[in-house]
Amino acid sequence: MTATARFRPSVTVAAVIAHEGRYLLVEEETPEGLRLNNPAGHLEQGESPLQAVVREALEETARAFTPEALLGVYLARFLRPERGEDVTYVRFAYRGHVGEPLPGRTLDTGIRRTLWLSLDEVRASRERHRSPLVLQCIEDHAAGRALPLESVQAHASLADPLRLA
Predict the structure, then answer these.
(1) Strand partners for 141
(2) How far apart are CA 114 and CA 31, in angstroms?
(3) What is the DSSP string of 65-133?
(4) Contact 39, 118 (CB under 8 A)
(5) How far is Cα 35 from Cα 69, in angstroms, rounded to an integer?
(6) Rounded Cα distance, 40 and 108, in Å
(7) Which residues are the signal sequence here (predicted)?
């Protein structure tokens, strides 16, 4: 029997933020050019998805994000054959709100700008989305999808790996 490589999906988080009928997106530099995305990023060692989404939203929008509910957990696969990349993403998406931009705070490297788009504008810009999950998450938000924040549990061992209880 031959050993196969263990499947290791990439875990990400995303903030879906609406205000007065518009959704907050970021325009970011990617290998495919400028793309639109929800404020999003990778889960880091030692943090919960909830902590990660607050951090990522702040880094990418320069605004404090307050999660209100888990929107859902999403999976998508992304191929870049020319670079030999085949990645499956597991995305924890949260709905919530943000305040005004924080003075002195800059956008994360690679983020060109933030913009507020209506649902119709998000739908019309589909070809510029970083992934199909951008629109899917926003459509779920518009449909009122919301799960309790407690739907995702983070054990204390994330911060303290020697903790057994």
Answers:
(1) none
(2) 19
(3) EEEEEEEEEEEEEEEEGGGTEEEEEEEEEEEEEE-SPPTT--PPTTEEEEEEEEHHHHHHTGGGBSSTH
(4) no
(5) 26
(6) 11
(7) none
Bridge partners of 11? 90
How does DSSP assign 16-59, residue by residue? EEEETTEEEEEEEEETTEEEEE-SEEEPPTT--HHHHHHHHHHH
Domains in the chain, CATH or no CATH each: 10-147 (3.90.79.10)
Alpha carbon 95 to chain centroid, angstroms? 10
Judge whether 23 and 104 are in contact, CB under 8 Å.
Answer: no
- Give the DSSP H or E segment for 134: helix 133-142
Count of residues in the chain: 165
How many CA atoms lie less than 13 Å away from 17 in the CB half-sphere?
28
What digits encode the pLDDT tens for the residues 19-68?
A: 999 999 999 999 999 999 999 999 999 999 999 999 999 999 999 999 99
Interior/surface letters 138-156, b for 16+ CB within 10 angstroms, e for the rest: bebbeeebbeeeeeeeeee
Q: Measured between alpha carbons, how far apart are the two ends of the chain, in Å?
A: 37
